[in-house]
């Protein structure tokens, strides 16, 4: 074969390769299928507490996959870093906090966040190794509460509903502190400087007469608010745990899809079956 024919053949091969690359790259006619690769916008990164938030999100992974999203869960061990990471755009959303805590974080730290949807309620309860019912609470009893100030109004409301204290008239119960207690007929002694994560330890060591423990921590030592609680939070509590997102993303498809999946019948059934009332779903 002559050099001229070889050169012509090679040119045709190069032309064919270029033509094929144009089709794959999307430069073809309207009837050609364009091959696309998945990009980063199909990933949803959510910061969460280990229990129950990350467990719930794990159940949501296949449901989100069906809708075209890959869910990445980043587990946090504290209540400060998830909001910081969200503000710094390391996360698309976070799922660890209740509404009053989110509101306080927005107010105190000027986060530009929104509540994208309430998902579940972790019931707070007072537990005791010595007290079985409210009538057994003795004069001068010690009440242990965590140092999470956004939960103070929550436990004070529970104590007032149980008839143990009464707050000053006109007090916003969600924002109430122990200074707002106007009547304390049993001279209860309040200690509220304990980290939430070690409230279960104070219970196991029998350090107080009534000890307020959130459901996600109580579950770790086998306590159920409905079965074991002396005083139990009502279902009408405003302390639902929510998906928080940056305000700029509140209408984004990925955030809407995340909340939609977490409100699905499949996720509700999982929560009800796994936690048996310790954690309740929010519609």
Compute the CA-based radius of gyration: 27 Å
**Spatial strand order of the main sheet:** 2-1-3-12-4-13
How many strands, which pairing sense, and closed or not: the largest β-sheet? 6 strands, mixed
Shape by Cα distribution: globular
* Coarse structural class: alpha/beta
Individual helix count = 10
Secondary-structure element order, as H and E?
Answer: HEHEHEHEEEHEEEHEHHEEHHE
What share of the residues does DSSP label as strand, in percent? Answer: 15-25%
Q: Tell me, rounded to a whole number, the average pLDDT.
A: 88
Low-confidence stretches: 1-40
Question: What is the end-to-end distance?
Answer: 78 Å
Helical residue percent band:
25-40%
In total, how many beta strands?
Answer: 13
Provide a quick synopsis of the model.
The chain has 283 residues and is α/β, with parallel strands linked by helices.
Question: What are the defining features of this structure?
Answer:
283 residues; alpha/beta; 6-stranded mixed beta sheet; 5-stranded mixed beta sheet; 36% helix; globular
Overall description:
36% of the residues lie in helices and 23% in strands. The strands form three sheets. It has a six-stranded mixed sheet with strand order 2-1-3-12-4-13, with helices on both faces. It is of the alpha/beta class and 283 residues long. β1 (43-49), α2 and β2 (70-76) form a beta-alpha-beta unit. α2 (50-66) packs across α9. 35% of the residues are buried. It contains ten helices and 13 strands. The N and C termini lie far apart (78 Å). The chain has helices at 3-24, 50-66, 81-87, 99-109, 152-161, 199-204, 215-218, 225-228, 253-262, 265-275; strands spanning 43-49, 70-76, 93-98, 113-122, 124-127, 142-146, 166-167, 181-183, 189-194, 210-214, 231-232, 241-246, 279-281.
